[in-house]
Amino acid sequence: MEPSSAVKPARRGIWRKAGRKAAAFALSVIMTLGAWGAQITVTVAAAQAASGTYAQAFPDANFRAAVLAQFTDGAPRTGSSPLTGADKVFLANNIPNQSLDVSNKNIADLTGIEYFTGLTTLWCQTNQLTSLDVSHNTALTELFCDNNKLTSLDVSHNTALTRLLCDYNQLTSLDVSRNTALVDLYCISNQLKSLNALHNIALTRLSCDGIQLTSLDVSHNTALTSLTCGLSRLTSLDVSHNTALVSLQCNDNLLKALDVSHNTALEELRCNNNQLASLDLSHNTALATLACYENRLTSLDLSHNTALTDLSCFNNQLTSLDLSHNTALTYLVCGSNQLASLDVTHNTALTILYCGYNKLTSLDVTHNAALGALYCYGNQLTSLDVSHNTALVTLRCFYNKMPSPDSVNGWKKLGLTINSPEGTSNESFWFYTQDVAAAQIQSAAPPQPRTQAIPAAAFHAAALAYTIKFLIDQGGFLWIHQQQ
Predict the structure, then answer these.
(1) Using only C-alpha atoms, what is the Rg of the chain?
(2) Nearest-5° Cα angle at 9, 6 to 13
(3) Buried b / exposed e along 125-146 (16+ C-beta atoms within 10 A)
(4) DSSP, res 140
(5) With contact defined as beta carbons under 8 Å apart, do 137 and 122 qualify?
């Protein structure tokens, strides 16, 4: 029902009063919100001013350029541009795959990396970094900072790390006790004198070459599949708890004994350049690669190692070597021992054979059709038949008892070109007699050879120590002559 006219004015008066009060309240709210807005605006502006420019946040120009390259929104940004709140959010949370690769960019200072709080992978290797602060990057799971100039590295805040590569720096200490999730740890060639990995029981790969360790305890690292601890000063190494090991490289230490009987999964063993007098490999039936050269071995039983493809056992004291069970061999280096005979008739897969500086009077390679390189110099061979070695491209048979190149049957047929005092310079066929004059040898030397003079009395005994690493490891050739 419509109200009477007498009532309406009164109600209109009430509504007018209410309207004035509501308007006053609304105005009050608007003014208050306006004040808040002004305050918020001022606060944001102050925050932006505090953040400063990109040049201030990222002082290294090369790093700054890499950071600016992360933005794909098309907005122009330079060193003088302000680092806005929106940009900081992007750097913290929206980097593609949360991975940042700033490797090999000649960066000396990684200041500003703290803005990447959501980062999970950081590649900053091969730069000029002397320090690295990743304390704010707590989400990191992978850190690659190798090939820098770091003297210290604090990863105590990076408890999610699974991979850490800090090789080739100048670290004097490394604490990974809080990084219990680590699976891969590489700290090769630093200045560490100790390494405690007892808390890192998840480790599967540990590489600590060249850090001068005198001891290494891996008894808690039972998940290890790869251990590289060469070029140190270890006098002992217990790997009896590491039954999952597939690769063990403990070369260039001071080991006098090595027990690998518990490591039945081993496929690669490099224990060269130690002081081992014996080596039991009877339990390592999966072994494919064995480097045990430059030790003190007088015997080597490989009858159980039928999977062996690569064998380097040179510079020991071996008087015999039975390879009849190793039919998969493709690479054999057994020089500088005391072998009077060598049977490779069962090793038909051989592609490289180095047996120099032994006491061989004969060598049958007629069954080794795949042979591409043969080094048999420094023996007592009176003849050599290579007519069946159709893949042969390199032959070194000098310093034997063969009177002429024709003592080597088949070299012409194979198209080898001789290099001798009477021949033309070519590297395919090297032939000299044992009594050839040093001057003649020197005159036939290849261009720019490496040279080393050795006293005549020790010539044959010492020659291989100078040649082998150039010849085999580096693929080069060291020119040796007797000292006059």
Answers:
(1) 36
(2) 145
(3) bbbebeebebebbeebbbbbbb
(4) -
(5) yes
Q: How many residues does the chain have?
A: 484
Predicted pLDDT of residue 420? 56
From the CB of residue 49, how many other CB atoms can be counted at a distance below 10 Å?
9
At residue 199's C-alpha, the angle toward residues 193 and 204, to 5°, is: 85
Cβ distance 246 to 264 under 8 Å? no
Instruction: Sort 1 into a burial class: Cβ within 10 Å, 0-12 / 13-18 / 19+.
Output: exposed
Kind and range of the H or E run holding 65: helix 61-68
Beta strands (DSSP E) in 159-244 are: 163-165, 184-186, 205-207, 226-228
Burial of 467 (0-12, 13-18, 19+ CB in 10 A): buried
DSSP 18-76: HHHHHHHHHHHHHHHHHHHHHHHHHHHHHHHHHH-BHHHH--SHHHHHHHHTT--S---
| Per-residue pLDDT at 432 | 79
Question: Cα(21)–Cα(467) distance, rounded to whole angstroms?
Answer: 103
Return the DSSP state at 304.
Answer: T
What is the C-alpha separation between 333 and 320, in angstroms, rounded? 14
Low-confidence ranges of the chain (pLDDT < 50): 1-50, 423-424, 437-484
Is residue 199 within 8 A of residue 219, CB to CB? The reply is no
Which residues is 312 bridged to in the sheet? Answer: 291, 333
What ranges in 180-243 are assigned the alpha helix state H?
A: none
Rounded Cα distance between 175 and 197, Å, is 9
Q: How far apart are CA 312 and CA 314, in angstroms?
A: 6
pLDDT at 313: 98
In order of 7, 19, 20, 22, the CA distances from 10 in angstroms are 6, 14, 15, 18
Residue 481 DSSP class: E
Predicted structure pTM score: 0.80
DSSP 121: E
Q: Which one, of 361, 405, 403, 369, lies nearest residue 387 by Cα? A: 369
